[in-house]
User: What shape does this take?
Amino acid sequence: MKDFENQISSSTKKETTSSTPAPDIDPSALPLLQKSSFFFFLIVSFFIVLNIVLVTLKPDRPPLRHYSPEFLIIEGLFSLGFLIASISRSLSWLGPIMLLAFLPFHLSSHIASMYSLGAFLIAIIELYRIGFFKRAGLFKITTLFIYYALTVLLVGIARSVFVVEIIMPIIFLFLFFLYLLPLFQGKWQINILRPRQKIRYKDLNLSERETDFLKQCLDGATFKEIASRNHVSESTVRNTFAHIYHKFEVSGRRGLLSKFADFDIID
Assistant: This one.
C-alpha cells in the first residue's frame, strides 16, 4: 500500500513540479517539443550547408534554387532558434513560434507548398499540446489561420502569382479550419496516451472482499451491480467502499477512479 501511495505521490510531483515556462504547459509535451525543434534544426541546417556546398561547387548552375546570402543568414537565425528551443526546456515553446514565423520565407519559394502547410499544422498541434488554446482558443486559432491566409495572399501578390494559385490554398486552408473548428469550440476531445504504470492488487493492502469489489468497480460496475454479483446488500457494498476510500484518502467513487486512472492493476 505504501509503495503504491509513493508511486502516486511521485507521479503527481513530476506533473506539478516540472520546470515549465508557464503553469498551463503540459510537462509531458516539453520533450516532444524539444525533439521536434531539434528535428527542424537539422533540416534547416542541412539545406543551408547543402546549398552552400552546391553553390561553391557549381556557382553558375547550382542544382538547388539559389538563395541570396541574406536569405541564408535568415535561415541560419531560424536554425539557431530551433537549436535553442531544443536545448532549453523553458524556451521549448519557441519551436512552434519559429515555424509560424518562417512561413512567409518558405511560401516565397512556392505559394502552395505542402511543406509550409505541414509546418503550420505541426505548429498548431504543438501549441495545442502546451495549452496555448486553453484561453480564448477560438480567437487564437482563427487569428493563426488568418495569418496563414494573409501570408499566402501577400506573398502571391508580391510574386505576381496567377490568382488561381493564390485562391486554391486559401480555400483549402479555410475548409481545414472549418474541420478543426469543433475542436477549438470544445466539441471534440483529444486524449493523449501516456505510459501506464503497473501495480499488483496484493500490494494495495486490501481485504479479499475489498479487492473483489475494487476490481469490479474499476471494470465499470455500479454498486447495485456489485451487490447483485456478490449476493450482498447495496449498503454492504457502500460500507466496504467507505473503507477503501479511507485507505486511499479519497472522498468518493470519482476520486478513487481518478487515482487509479494512470495505473494498470494486475493480479
User: Anything to note?
Assistant: The longest strand covers residues 197-200. Residues 195 and 262 are 8 Å apart (CA to CA).
